[in-house]
Amino acid sequence: MHSLVTGGAGFIGSHLADALLDRGDRVRVLDNLATGRRENLHPDVEFVDGSVADADAVARAVEDIEVVFHLGALGAVARSVADPRASNDANVNGTLNVLTLARDAGARRVVFASSSSVYGGAEIVPTPESAPLRPRSPYAVTKLTGDWYTRVFSDLYDLETVVLRYFNVFGPRQRPDSTYAAVIPLFAAAMLAGESPVVHGDGTQSRDFTYVTDVVAANLAAASAPADQASGQAFNIAPGEGTTLLELLDGLGARLGVTPDPVFVESRPGDVHRSCADATAARTILGWAPRVSVADGLAAYVDWIRST
Ligand SMILES: NC(=O)c1ccc[n+]([C@@H]2O[C@H](COP(=O)([O-])OP(=O)(O)OC[C@H]3O[C@@H](n4cnc5c(N)ncnc54)[C@H](O)[C@@H]3O)[C@@H](O)[C@H]2O)c1
To answer: Relative to the CA of 10, which ligand 1 atom is closest?
Structure first.
């Protein structure tokens, strides 16, 4: 298969590109290196250096492609609060470019990276896909817009589409040194440096942490799932286990041989308190199941961050 991974120089996209190459696919990556890194690119990847917001770059990237995995986006709630227009440009205009130009180029399927943030502060936890969609940040609005566009395209045009709603993904290549780094890299880096990890809120907020190879497996399953069941649908991708930030600190501390000594600061605007998936649909329709526990994933992450 000839696949395109947008955002393929980033954390999740680069693992996906590696897995596609491993199974014998030809892989093209479209990425503008906004947060991704050239060193994440496998030498066998064909790299198009450009933005999903640039229609010409997207048109070049989708040529002769069968399946597009669309992960290229500006992540992070806090970034979108600081600069909503930049997030909208990459995530909304970019997604519309990918969908229309993939359709025009005759691609078979687009698999879109959506987010648990579309649910906002969900009242039903574990949260099924049918729960009300109540985005609470510009980032979440952009992901919901892309999610909705992607589902609608399968009804209107000759294009199969599958939406995957990732929860909190973690694993090697997730860096602690970017402005909007995620919580596991930040906690691990602070503890490794002998500093106090900074906890926003009281640490009782929980997240459904998902190891990156499980998200890669969900993408591969989404690319081949039967269109009559999967196309036009959204699927939660997460183990369905809430882990609080305090539990996370303990888990990381145990692995690092450090007793966590966190400092607590005020909650961040737009953050939700509890996030946990009901992933029954992914299990039954995509045949997907998580394979890596949070504890094993943290161990692999600690090994990676120690080696960098
Ligand atoms: N990491 C998570 O927990 C998580 C959770 C839910 C959804 N997601 C989604 O998964 C996808 C990948 O996230 P990630 O964690 O690997 O982040 P990441 O920042 O490592 O990867 C995003 C990639 O997209 C690229 N990119 C950004 N703007 C672009 C543009 N305009 N044109 C082309 N490329 C662009 C970046 O350079 C980067 O390589 C994103 O769509 C994100 O919204 C991630």
So the answer is: 39
Q: What is the pTM of this model?
A: 0.97
Beta carbon of 12 within 6 Å of any ligand 1 atom? yes
Fold of 2-167+211-238: Rossmann fold (3.40.50)
| Residue 215 CA: distances (Å) to CA of 66, 109, 167, 221, 237 | 20, 18, 10, 10, 7
Show Cβ contacts of residue 110 under 8 Å, excluding neighbours closer than 6 positions: 67, 68, 70, 98, 99, 102, 150, 153, 159, 160, 161, 162
Side-chain half-sphere of 113: how many Cα atoms within 13 Å? 28
The residue extents of the domains of the chain are: 2-167+211-238
- Which residue's CA is minimally distant from atom 2 of ligand 1? 169
Bridge-partner residues for 260, per DSSP?
none
Q: Residues 194, 198, 202, 203: is their CA dihedral positive or negative?
A: negative
Residue 216's beta-bridge partner residues?
none
Ligand 1 contact, 92 CB (< 6 A): no
Taking the chain (308 residues) in consecutive chunks of 10 residues, what is each chunk's mean pLDDT? Answer: 97 98 98 97 98 98 98 93 96 98 98 96 93 94 98 98 98 91 95 95 96 98 98 98 96 93 88 91 98 96 94
Protein residue closest via CA to atom 9 of ligand 1 = 113
What is the 181 CA–ligand 1 centroid distance (Å)? 12
At 186, list the tokens: 């930040």
Instruction: Tell whether ligand 1 has an atom less than 6 A from the beta carbon of residue 297.
Output: no
